[in-house]
Amino acid sequence: MSIRDTLGQAAASIAKGQMNHVVSTVLKQRSYKVLHAVDASSRVAEQTNRELLFRLLDDNKDTEYGKKYGFASIHDVDAYREQVPLTTYDDYEDAITRMTEEGQKNVLTAYPVVYYASTSGTSGAPKKIPVSDRGLQVFRDHSSSMFVSVISEFYKNTLLKNVPDGYWLAMMNFAQTPLPDGTMFGSISAACLNDEALKAMPFFACTPLDVFACTGSANFKYLHARYGLAQRNVTQIVGPYIPALLDLMNYIKDEWQVLVNDIREGTINSEVLMPDELRAKLEADLAPDPARADELEREFQKGFDNTVMQRIWPKLSGISSIWAGNFSSYARKLQEYSGRNIPYYTMSYVSSEGIFGVARHPHDQCYVLLPGSCFFEFIPVVNGKDDDEAPDAKTVLFNEVQEGKDYELVITNQSGFYRYRMGDVVRVIGFYNESPMVTFKYRKKNIISIAGEKFTEDHLLSAVRSFERKTGINVIDFCMYPDRDAEPGRYVVLLEPEEVVPKERYEECQAIMSAELTRASTSYAHYVVGGNMGEPKLIFLQKETFQFHREMKMYEMGINENQLKPVRVLDKPDVIKFFTLLEER
To answer: How many whole angstroms separate alpha carbon 166 and alpha carbon 316?
Structure first.
């Protein structure tokens, strides 16, 4: 029975709390099926991945792209790699324009293109990534199901109990806009909401659907906090990137009196920005809740220590977000509100082009690649160097990658991208049955070079972590840029510390950061020692600089937290100016 049928039979006769139990039960049942499918496919990963490729080639042999590259004549992987070139988005842009503006079909894929996913648009206009019905189903199968099943499995195996029924505080935005051909365009997470999910959401999400779908300017932080606090039985907190979750808790800490008063009075604060139509809809459904307001007030007056999230949400059972690697400092800071006994689950390895891997256990900082999602190839990265943009770069396959090695990811997805260079470099850290387990290392476009060296965001992360250990200074966030105007050129590293660093420590910190950068990258060290690059400059930023930058970018670019990626390498003069103006002086 579908969720839609279940809801249709039950909604008229049972209360919302009972409906929450019905929806929670169905979600758990479905999520276990996904978990078992992930485990099963990992045992025959190579076979599953090859079968996917040949199914894609056969199904798409009569498309414009399939005819151009002779899909019908390809019967083995070597032939595929010989006949079909490696690609980037530029290779598809003309076809996508014809598809979206002229409604052309059967161009890149024979499968119906049901959506176009937006990239973050941090470099120019957002790209339009086609998503077929089959590709979208892979997203829907794995996007939230793995979180539900893994957390449930964790509670059963380690705590010998079930995750309680309850509600999700989900910091999402599902706004979409139509393209000329009538297909919708927006974040990939927005596409994952089908009719069944829309019907189910009011019974497990704190925030109303009207907020999720809002396309106008609004203070979403207030709205998520207002509705999340009003619901005592929050069991899961979900957000795309963990900085947004930390921002939410910081906001609650600063504005709790306003939020509690609005819950007590059953109002939306008059000073909060949002479209008038949205305000009218929300206010029509609100009612005063003095009992919940009193409870929140008592708990907030006790302070914001590492028990506060569990005190205001006694059923809190899990937090899901992208928090590994570069975001580990945010996870550590959020644990000052949540405590360490709440399991954190890192979201799927996902982009607009596909969902590539999932974390198998809470607190894992790696992903099990999904052999049924895309056909995978890997370009080896040796001594920090790969084949760059060579059109004939040699790839290895699922069964040929080696533990401890780095690779650039190449995918053939189910939505019309073939041998597509993602620009992501990952490290294979082991295997889950036959499936490689990978950690994300860096984006190739975030490689810095001044004198011929290659310095990546992973090198920077390594240097910052060592800097923290040696100085005792906790870093909230960090970035860098190449200062090519200096003689000789140098790196400028910008850190936002948790606490103000005394001026008398600046010289010490400068020396430690310089040493850690050279330790992190032998290529960089060679050029510094040789005199071709100058000593780096270290800048400490004012508190909440990165939070301010995120909010500014969301406002300027009209994007939401789902699409806002971290800034690590500053490459535009206006962005560099923004950060340097906020230097701690």
So the answer is: 9
